[in-house]
Amino acid sequence: xxxxxxxxxxxxxxxxxIGAGASGCLCAYFLxxxxxxxxxxxxxxxxxTLLPTGGGRCNLxxxxxxxxxxxxxxxxxxxxxxxxxxxxxxxxxxxLFEELGIKTYVQENGRIFPQSNSAKEVREKILNKITKANFxxxxxxxxxxxxxxxxITTNKAKYLFTDVVAASGGHWGIEIFKHLDLSxxxxxxxxxxxxxxxxxxxxxxxxxxxxxDLKISDDILFTHFGISGPLTFKISSIKARDKFPYKLSxxxxxxEFELQNLLNTYPHKELKNILSEFLPLNFxxxxxxxxxxxxxxxxxxxVRDEILEKIHNFQLTITGTNKxxxxxxxxxxxxxxxxxxxxxxxxxxxxxxxxxxxxxxxFCGGFNLQNAWSTAFSAAQDxxxxxE
Length: 388
Ligand SMILES: Cc1cc2nc3c(=O)[nH]c(=O)nc-3n(C[C@H](O)[C@H](O)[C@H](O)COP(=O)(O)OP(=O)(O)OC[C@H]3O[C@@H](n4cnc5c(N)ncnc54)[C@H](O)[C@@H]3O)c2cc1C
What we know:
Elements: E1 5-6, E2 15-18, H1 22-33, E3 39-41, E4 61-62, H2 67-71, H3 78-87, H4 90-99, E5 104-106, E6 111-114, H5 119-129, E7 134-136, E8 140-146, E9 149-154, E10 158-161, E11 163-166, E12 184-190, E13 194-196, E14 205-211, E15 216-222, E16 226-228, H6 230-238, E17 246-251, H7 259-265, H8 271-275, H9 281-288, H10 301-312, E18 314-321, E19 328-333, E20 351-353, H11 367-387
Parallel strand pairs: 1-10, 2-3, 2-11, 3-7, 11-20
Antiparallel strand pairs: 4-6, 5-6, 8-9, 9-10, 12-19, 13-16, 13-18, 14-15, 14-17, 15-16, 17-18
Helix pairs in contact: 1-11, 3-11
This protein binds flavin-adenine dinucleotide (FAD).
Flavin-adenine dinucleotide is lined by residues 18-24, 41-44, 48-49, 52-54, 58-59, 139-140, 167-169, 171-172, 176, 327-328, 355-357, 366-369, 372.
């Protein structure tokens, strides 16, 4: 091991960013733009984590311009984000991407993408703007506070810095902070498919299903392990901290639906053909079982009510998350440790936390990257103001 090294800068501040992901690289961009030198640590290639976002298209923000409404999309972090988003909101994100030379567009569901639909392009454009950062390809093993400075130990060397931005994300262990006496909430998967006790035919999508427990609607996808798709991701996010197993009930067709009238109108039709007007045929066959091919006039009131109950009160038990599929993690550095205006750690001056390492996570739709950009901005602003 080499002895602790000091990175000297003109401003008198020696700044390290741990993690060259979305938040770390944007923080580096803001600091470099203000004329500060930056040391950027990552054991992997910078902005590698951006490449799979939005299915390779990078859903970089969401077209919600009211910061309080925007913050409602974060099951953990809503109130904390008021202050963050009032400093750097969706408008600022769009202006920032314009500045980076990345044109954007809004999809009809509010999701914002680069016009190129290419996460690769976003990555390259950001990296082109931070070439002056001193990139150190090393894995940080831990951080300690030594007086007013921070000692960073990596797999190769030890360093001393006056300012540290911890932007190491939600997926790679939080143990590097264990010497700092911080309250850390355990990280659990969010935005993930859910394993369930029932397995409907895989690949079927039901539109606009209503979750009766959570009072939200969206599309649901049945898979070989259970359920996935937009509604499931929202449920997995809201219930990220719930213990398994838990039960869920859904209204699969939450619209006006007079089954008895249909049975009377089409007495010689098979039940599966009547219901396939409303739900996909393969799913109807699964739902009806032995009744699928029974003619309408043979369906009595008891069977009719059982069928309606299955449609309007479809029940399943969730037994766990589909391992390896999670997009973000819920958990991380407890927000009570952090100043919401600056991202600075209350216990440790000049130590900042940004992005997914914080106990903040949002729904699908560009909200998690928005958190990464906005918290990076707050931290950078504070460092810049103190370096002046
Ligand atoms: C498949 C997938 C698709 C996604 N799509 C979207 C989307 O379209 N829109 C959206 O808003 N969000 C999306 N997300 C979530 C989003 O990518 C993350 O919330 C965001 O990248 C978090 O940014 P971050 O900078 O905090 O962490 P990251 O981007 O995860 O970066 C952390 C960096 O720190 C490095 N690091 C970690 N530990 C160490 C260490 N000890 N030493 C050195 N370096 C370290 C890592 O190598 C990594 O480069 C997606 C996530 C996934 C997995």
